[in-house]
Structures are given as C-alpha cells and as structure tokens.
Amino acid sequence: MSPTGNESAGFGSELLGRGFTTPTDLIVGYIIFTLASLAVICGIYNVYLIKNMKIFHNAFGWFWASRTVGEIGSNLVHVIYSGPMTLSQPIFISPIAGITAFTLGYFFACHACVMHQIVSLNRMIAVWFPLKYSHIFTNKVCKMLITVCWIEVVFVALAYLVIPCQVVGYSPKLYEYVFVKCDPDMERDFSYVGTVINRFCFGVCFATVISDLATLVKIIQIRKAGNQSKTFNRDVRFFCQTSVQNITMMIALTMIVLVNNSQSSDGMLMQIFAFNTLILTHINNALALIIFNPEVRARIRGGTNSSSAMERSHKVAPTLTLDASQTEG
Q1: Transmembrane stretches, by residue range (predicted)?
Q2: Contact assessment for residue 215 and residue 124, using Cβ atoms and an 8 Å cutoff
Q3: What radius of gyration, in Å, describes the C-alpha atoms of the chain?
C-alpha cells in the first residue's frame, strides 16, 4: 500500500520492527494505543446504551450497534498489536502476525464503513418516506442487511490473500499498513487490490454525503411547511449523528487514498495522520450517540426519570423487538 522501505531480502521484512525504539516510535505508539483504547471504551459504551435504552430498539439502533461492533474489532487490533509493536519495534516476529493484524483490522473496519452507508440510507428513508419506513425496514430486512454486510467484507478481506502478490500487513517502523513484496527484487510497492478497494470505499462514502444532503433538503422542506411528525425532532437528531461523521470519514478516506499505494518514501507525517484519523473517526462516531441525544446525556447524569420521560415522549414501543413495524425508526 504505502512505501515499504525494504532493507532485507526476507519475505515480510517490511513488517518487522527496527530492533530499537526511537522517540518517534514512542510518540506514535502511545498515540495509537491511547486513541484505539478510547475508541474501544466508547464503542462498548455505545453498545451498552443501545441495548438498555428503548429509544434505540429499532432498525437505526441495530444498524448502529453492528457498525460499532466493527469499530470495536478494528481498534482492538491496534490495542493488542499495532500500538505495542510500534512501541517495542521487535525484529524477531513472524510477518504472519502483521498480515493477520491487517486482515482482522481491515475486516472489521470495512464492515463499520459499509454499515455507515446503511445507517445514512436508513435516515434518508425515515425522513423522505416516513409512512413506508416500517414496511421497508422490517425485522427480516434488518437482519438480512446486517448479515449480508458481514459476509460481504469477508470476501473483501480475503481478496488480499487469494489474489497473488497483494498481501498487506502492519509495519511498526512505518506506522501503518503496508504492501508486502512477494519478491525482494519486485519494483511494485503497492497492492492493486488495495488501490481498487480504497477508491471504491471513497466513492461509496461520497455517495453517503449525497444521501445526507438529500435528507437535509427534505428536513428543510418539512420545517418550512410546518408538517413535522411526532418523531421529526428525533429523526433530525439521528440524521445529525450520521452526517457529522461523514466529515471525519471523508478526511480519513481522502488521506488513505492519497497516502496508501504511494510509491514515494516521503510523507511519514501524512502516513501517521492517515492511520490515526480513521481511529479518530471511530471515536467521533461513538461520541455522536452521546452528543446528539439528550436521553443519553440524561442517563449519564443519572437522570433516569428525565430519560424515561423523553423516551415516552417519542412513543417508543415497550417491546424489545427489532421489528421496525413496532418501533419508529
């Protein structure tokens, strides 16, 4: 993906540490470990809130939970592997470890990205077609969408391993995921699979920006017409949660497209920024659930009565079913 800086002839030498730790290694390693740990903690708390608050017992909540699980998995890889390896810079470690770290981290991160598009689409339909919403996001459809997204990213992750000479792994000395040359004398220092997938993800995420703009246009129209439904304010807040995340998501993907598959040895700062911006995006996603929902803030403050009153004001069904026909988006 990015420049490998191959010094030895052994396969996977790009994924070994430098054998000693520099001040930059310590700074970057602690940044990765700290940010990823925070992302994991915030993600787990998001799942806890979704499970225990009725306002999220609907299609939106389950989509959000599935995406959050992907983000937790991706950042656990950084907590367990990327951060510690950057801090210790070991040279006696199997390249398979770095490749496995990428495969697992990429699998979970891709799922989170795909589910983000589903969440955005869910919000657009809720605002544009409120009467058809419960018929579109039924219990069966929600389960199918989540399952398909998990299966889809399996094939995406396997593409790096199945297609010859496309392997990528985490490099402690370059602070990001890098292409692993299958031949030391190979001139190509990037993965074709990575090039295609990264640009495709950028395009999909940009399409999400367009769907968010369409949702915003409809919200403005509804406000001007004065035809707000009883769930309108909540729909607006849920929309804000998804749209604000596109800012950091687009920044992260733009950086990844620019830095990954680069054939230049320059731009170490850009590599660090690109790798950690995606982690920051996951933190931002988790915090959005708290920032844009007064019910959540009330729960954090211990205001259970206030939280219950807000939930009743939204007319949330008392059942804990995923069936969208029994909830309100």
Answers
A1: 27-48, 60-81, 93-114, 141-163, 196-217, 238-259, 271-292
A2: yes
A3: 21
Cα distance between residue 232 and residue 101, in whole Å: 43
Amino acid at 294: P
pLDDT of residue 252: 73
- Taking only the tens place, the pLDDT of each residue in 212-242 is 788 888 877 777 776 666 666 666 766 776 6
What is the distance, to the nearest Å, from the Cα of residue 185 to the centroid of all Cα atoms in its chain? Answer: 35
97: which 2 tokens? 């470890």
With a threshold of 0.70, does the pTM exceed it? Answer: yes
First to last CA, the chain: 40
Phi, psi values for residue 230, rounded to 5°: -65, -20
Instruction: Convert the pLDDT of each residue in 5-45 to its tens digit.
Output: 444 557 778 889 888 999 999 999 999 999 999 999 999 99
What does the block give as tokens for 51?
């499970």
